Amino acid sequence: MDPVENLEDRMCLKHDKPLELFCRTDQTCVCMLCTVLDHKMHNVVPLKQECEGKKVELQKTEAETQMIQKRRLKIQEVQHNVKLSEEDADREKAEGVQVFTGLKESVERKLKELITTIEEKQRSTKKQAEDAIREMEQEISDLMKRSTEVEKLSL
Q: How many domains does the chain have?
């Protein structure tokens, strides 16, 4: 046995013998007398063997813990990337709304200008038509006066 600082910790309190074995049934360290008296028919193995087994289990647990930590970090990274992506999407939406609002306002202005131009052309065409009608009515009136004069002269 290797020397230890607290030898009392490695001694059976009941039998004052070294704790050299491990009772898997009760999950405790036992001495040789304990296996014969108190732990008969229990699954007992040398302490060193159990220690090696526990070390392997501990290494597996540590590896699993490290995997869990890595996964948690990956989750945080993914969540951070999702947040950044959402912020980018919101910014792009705002920019898109701004661009399309400007475009919509520009189209509405151009539409008003087009309507105004068409209405002005219509008014101009209508005025020209009214002027032409007035002129033709004046000519008709003049022709009718002449016709009346010619009839008077012929009578």
A: 1
